Amino acid sequence: MDAKNAADVLGIHDMSGKVQALGEKVHELSERPIEIAISAEENLLYHTKTIWLFTYSDLKTIVAPETAFGILSALSGPILTTNQSPRFSIILSRIPLVTFWCWINLLPFAIDNQRQPEAIEEDGENKPWRSMPSGRLSEKHAKWLMWSLYPAAIVASLKLGGLKQCLALIFLGWWYNDLGGADHSCITRNFINACGFLSYASGATEVASRTELLGSPFKPIAWPWFLTIGAVVFTSVQTQDMYDQAGDGLRGRKTVPLVVGDHYARWSIAIAMAIWSVFCPTFWQLGPGSYAMSMITSGIIIFRTLTKRSVPADKLTFRIWNLWMVMLYLMPLFKRIKGGSWL
């Protein structure tokens, strides 16, 4: 083979190698967007779950019951509001918006509550799956996320309604988490909880009916009813503290059962339940059906509170308490539809 032919052969082999290398590079680059997309999806799912875990425990105690309160209060129409004929379909269509309003206002509070060093230690014992004790998020990033979500809650409230309540919840959260309102006094703790329930309830109602609560679209009786709900919470919300005495003791919190003792705390719940189960249907002058529903459910709570004293039993009792609260939320609607009926 002469020199020219040898050079041609070498050139062909060299070109072939370059083409092959180029093909491999193109193949590698073509796979990278897929890998990037998969990685982005995994990261999105991971961070979505991290955020979700902050509010998971409160979905059944705050988001669901307060959404129900807002929708049911709006449906009561002329009983609580100046809307004489609320359209059922329109109010029900606002359920996602009411739920979102409750959740977006809860989220920064929950992050602030769970990012505290004492809370991380407590959750490590009782709820190790939460975002902070499980190491899904650092304290620094949790604080950054919290401060970015407060403006988001304000913007959402500007758009959907409930701005005054949103601002009240921000103040209450600061008092509860950062000023020690949840830790230093059981009376202050219950008071903040009651004010929080009031803020969620009235805000959810405003979003559901898309009216300004202080702009007099509500009947005068609305405020006494809201305050009644606040009083119910103030005197019986320690139901949620019965099953978490170990964690609260570890954190040094002064909850009702840790201040007055388990025995007297249970009796305080029983007495409050007995009073409010009669007072609330009387407030609305309802029929025997409403009395029966309220008193039977409260009777179950009283029985369980006084006789079932394990952590799992107390957790179930608290769930039943939340169900009973929803029954109270139904009463203005019952007043509207009863018309002398059994309700």
Automatic annotation (TrEMBL):
GO terms for cellular component: membrane. Signal peptide: none annotated. The keyword Nucleotide-binding does not apply. The chain crosses the membrane at residues 290-306, 318-334. It is found in: Membrane. GO terms for molecular function: transferase activity, transferring alkyl or aryl (other than methyl) groups. It is a multi-pass membrane protein. The keyword Transmembrane helix applies. Pfam families: UbiA (PF01040). Keywords: Membrane, Transmembrane, Transmembrane helix. This is Digeranylgeranylglyceryl phosphate synthase protein.
